[in-house]
Amino acid sequence: MFESLQRRSLLKMAAGTAATGWLWRGGTAQAAATTGTAMTGAVTNTGPLDTLVFGDTASESAHGLTATLSDVVPGGLGQAARVLNAPQTAGFWGGTLSATMACKPRGVTYITIKLWGSESGADLGRLQLFAEGRQVGHYHLGAVDPLDIASDDPRTPERFYFHTLPLPVDLTEGKKAVSLEVRSMGRIAGYASSADEYYKDMTGPSRTIYRLYTHDEPYFALAADDVTGTMPALATRTSPGSEVIDTINARVTARAAAEAARPSAQLDLWYLDFLARAYGMSSTGAYRHIAVPPQIARSLDGVYWKYVADSTVMTGSSQQWMGLGRAGLVLLGLADELKPLLDEPVLGSPYGLTNAGFEFGTTGWRSSIWSGSGTASRDTTVYRTGHASARVTVPSAGTVGYTTSAKIPVDQGTYTYGAWIKTDGVGAGSAFLDVLFYDASGTPVGGDNKVHASAGTHDWEHVTTALTTPGGATQVTISIRLSGAGTAWFDDLTMVKPEGSSYAPVIRRDAWTKMLLDSREYWRQNVPQYTNQAIICAIGLYLADRGLTYLGSDDAWGEKKARDHIYQAVGLVPWLGPEKADGTPTMPLGGSYYQVTTKGISKELGYAGNYGELQEWLSMVYDAVIGIGGVEDTTLHSHLLKIAKARTVFHCPALDGDGYKSMRMEAIIGWRDTEYPGKVAYDEGNKWDGHPLRLAALLKDPDYTSYAQQSITDNQAFHVLEEAAGLTASARTNLNLLSTADDYAYITGATGSGAQLPMTPGQPDFVFSDEENGLVAVKHGDEILYASLYWRARWGVNRLARVHHISAAGIERSATVRQEVKYIADGRAFTEPDWVNWEFTVNDLDIPDGGFNPPGDALHQAYAGQVLPLAKAPDDVPERDPGVESPYAGRASFYRCAYGPYLIAMNTTADRSYTFTTQGFGESTNLVTGAKVSADATLRVKPGTTVVLRRR
Q1: CA distance 144 to 216
Q2: Whole-angstrom distance, CA of residue 690 vs CA of residue 684
Q3: Residue spans of beta strands (DSSP E) within 395-474
Q4: Beta partners for 366?
Q5: How many separate helices (H) and strands (E) can be counted in the chain?
């Protein structure tokens, strides 16, 4: 079966093999018959089919180059090059380069671009490939991506890098030459909600473009005279240093003090979490501060009213998929302190007094001067109960005090109104409580109803009055006043309703229970699928239920069921997905789907790289259950450590933006990553929700501690922290950075194992394979290979792999390549639509299928019409229509990927073995076992294992 198989035949074959078994799809030339189990395919490196050298007159002329808005410029290392310029009138599309180049008439033709890795800045925009007038691939998260996506960091300083893409087979079938075009374009804002926001105008020249190559092997073999550059000498970053810790600590401690003293409610749950944590940290001004518990209570009241007014508070993006669950964490953090406040009315509740003891600032009250002069203020040095009272002072003459800021609804009947009053040097009838009634239109009904404290100087005295609501009155205001010289304090006001009245204020326990229960019930029925999202949602569910348990709700699940949602999300037990209203799991991916592989990598739709790093959420899981939650769970602790350690393989040596040695997250094979290179990170990068020392300080594992110490030794931890602090001084970043000083103190004082990150130069060679994710990482001396064999196959088996190869000399290649696969077909197929922006739909957003179309003339997709057969899902997985994303539709059972000196054979099944041959590959070494392999060997790949051969 050849690559030139027509779409009609492929669709027919996919349908015909659904019942009979296995379908091979070849890579470069052929594949074994459907009844066989051996795979062959020669791997030779014969060099390019064609090379176009930009800036070289002879080469450009030979290829019929047509350039628009382009200049020839001296490039890196003295090499000829071109840039593409922005349009004269502001616009998204810039200059172009069009040429005719040789291609292969049968099989796959690859295009490789040569670019200078020292350039940086997102304003360089993007480079997009067109072939025969059609766009090749998609702008955003397509299986075939643009030729280049500029980033704020340089890709490979002082060296060239090479990016390779495949052309559709049908496009070059029977041809010896193909028309190619490179178009420059502006930036793209991936989270924009309109086309105008999404497509950014070009603002300057593109990245310099050096060469374009065509070739027929996945690995592009460089000619001996093709200049590549040399890795600069490695140097350790010298600044910033530990002063960053002090700067961050000063910022967050100042913010903690400000939050503790905030005069109004804080409605941002990130900051309430921040304040609750700061309350338990001796290094902050909020530590055990008497104002914090009432401030937390007042703010949770405000969150409740905000939710009542707008239920989207629970589903909006401000708290991501946690809903209102973070409020549960706040309750756990101040459990003892908040208990006395639980059965009081919610501040602002109708039919009751708000802030009757001035514990919550002056919320619910407004100061008034009826005559003369004087002052009214909140006093935290004198109080009957709690931590505050209202103080009123009149120097000589006047009437001054506080009045409820809103009229309070009242029922008919007799209410008892009261206040505790303390005085210093007041006259007779001077300090008093005054009650006034109003009708529905706000017109007074009757006059003042005053009850006075004793004259002179005395301690707390309780004054009360029973008043029958006048006919026609529906509202009341309550005032506390001092008339004449002296000082009076007022505390613990009361308004007791008549017996039998149906009107009552909302009590905190009930209000907070409602919002936590609503959040839990909504999100358990709307759990998202991707691993990081599922974890965030599970944290919210768990914390909401912990809050319900704390509040004494009969609807609380209890620890076991609540923690099961955490276990599902982190891969300790199968993920059962959203629940129906009656609690029945929907199991959209069957009953045996795990969110995390047995190797510890989040599953999703393949390897989630820079974008899908989980450390910040693993920290949050730890805090929610073990740290702040106070539950001893060694199983969860060990599992979190396993996940964290598994990801260390995907941090590779690189230079930072200033040319210093560092480790970066592997992003080029990350299925949700859109920018390369990945961020500088030894653990967590510069994200909103985590920092690079946090998880190590929580898990306290000797190896993981040493990795954090490595980041400090390389002086990169400070640099990342500085960047994280510079993102924005928001509630999320301040919460993220709150523990920085304490975490740094632990890491620098702890005894680690001395381990270094696995990809660090000088560390032992290894092969890491994750068969559930189609993922491979190889360290062979100073050479590194990352490969995602299950590459962005949302809709069906696309036979594409993504590789990132770093040679011993530091030359980087990235490529999307064809591979051979074997899978069980389910009899259906998906046909790629004619979309150029996204390769997928976004059903939950107000965005058209395939994303926003770019400005200008309509474009057409070179891969439109490509038929992707669907692999069979497990029997208990509900069937999804073709074109509906599924982690099973594109997952093959066996992959054979040849790339340069590497041949990878991966068996992703649990119960079936495969064989493949090395015919045409040459003599090699099995990097997993160390065994020598002949040039025509037949090797058996056991279930759930991977063979990685390297040519000798």
Answers
A1: 17
A2: 7
A3: 398-404, 408-409, 414-426, 431-438, 444-452, 456-468
A4: 403
A5: 19, 40
Q: What percent of the chain has pLDDT over 90?
A: 87
Q: How is residue 647 written in tokens?
A: 């990801």
Distance between alpha carbon 922 and the CA centroid of its chain, in Å? 44
Q: Are 886 and 872 in contact (CB under 8 A)?
A: no
DSSP secondary structure letters along 107-155: S--EEEEEEETT---GGG-EEEEEETTEE-S-SBS-SS--SEE--SS-S
Alpha carbon distance 267, 303 (integer Å): 5
Cα–Cα distance for residue pair 447/209, rounded to 1 Å: 86
The answer to whether residues 949 and 921 touch, using CB atoms and an 8 Å cutoff, is yes
Picking from 743, 643, 635, the residue whose alpha carbon sits closest to that of residue 696 is: 743
Residue 100: partners with Cβ closer than 8 Å, 6 or more residues away? 63, 64, 177, 178, 179, 180
CA dist 668 and 251 (Å) reads: 35
Q: Is 408 left (phi over 0), alpha (psi -120 to 50) or beta?
A: beta
Question: What gap in Å lies between CA 799 and CA 821, rounded to an integer?
Answer: 6
d(CA 542, CA 570): 13
Please compute the mean of the pLDDT values over residues 836-849 and round it to a whole number.
84
Q: Is the peptide bond before 240 cis (omega within 30 degrees of 0)?
A: yes
- Measure the CA–CA gap between 182 and 130, rounded to whole angstroms: 6
Residues of the chain with CATH 2.60.120.260: 50-215, 365-496
Q: Are 439 and 471 in contact (CB under 8 A)?
A: no
Residues paired with residue 416 on neighbouring β-strands, in sequence order = 466, 496
- The pair of structure tokens assigned to 293 is 């518990």
Q: How far apart are the first and last CA of the chain?
A: 30
Q: Spell out the residues 6+ positions from residue 44 whose beta carbon is closer than 8 angstroms to its own.
A: 217, 920
Tokens for 436, please give them.
Answer: 């006034």
Q: What's the pLDDT tens digit per position in 304-359? A: 999 999 999 999 877 789 999 999 999 999 999 999 999 988 998 888 888 999 98
Whether the bond between 677 and the residue before it is cis, its omega within 30 degrees of 0, is yes
Per DSSP, helices labelled H in 668-701 are 694-699
- Give the CATH number of domain 365-496: 2.60.120.260
Cα–Cα–Cα angle for 149, 153, 159, rounded to 5 degrees: 85
pLDDT one-digit tens code per residue, 243-273: 999 999 999 999 999 999 988 899 999 999 9
Residue positions counted in the chain = 952
What amino acid is encoded at 381 in this protein? T
pLDDT digits (tens, 9 = 90+) for 132-183: 999 999 999 999 999 999 999 999 999 999 999 999 999 999 999 999 999 9
**Once rounded to an integer, what is the mean pLDDT over residues 909-922?**
95
Q: Give the whole-angstrom CA distance, residue 588 versus residue 115.
A: 44
What letters, b where the CB count within 10 A reaches 16 and e where it falls short, cover 18-33?
A: beeebbbbbbbbbbbe
Question: Are 117 and 812 in contact, with CB atoms under 8 Å apart?
Answer: yes
In terms of Cβ atoms closer than 10 Å to its own Cβ (0-12, 13-18, 19+), residue 781 is exposed
Q: Give 523's contacts (C-beta < 8 A, 6+ positions apart).
A: 321, 322, 323, 325, 537, 540, 541, 544
By DSSP bridging, strand 398-404 and strand 66-68 are unpaired
Within a 13 Å sphere around the CA of 24, how many CA atoms are in the beta-carbon half?
22
- Which CATH superfamily includes the segment(s) 50-215? Galactose-binding domain-like (2.60.120.260)
Distance CA 726, CA 728 (A): 5
CA distance 197 to 842: 17
Angle between helices 292-309 and 269-279 (to 10 degrees): 160
Distance of CA 874 to the CA centre of its chain: 29
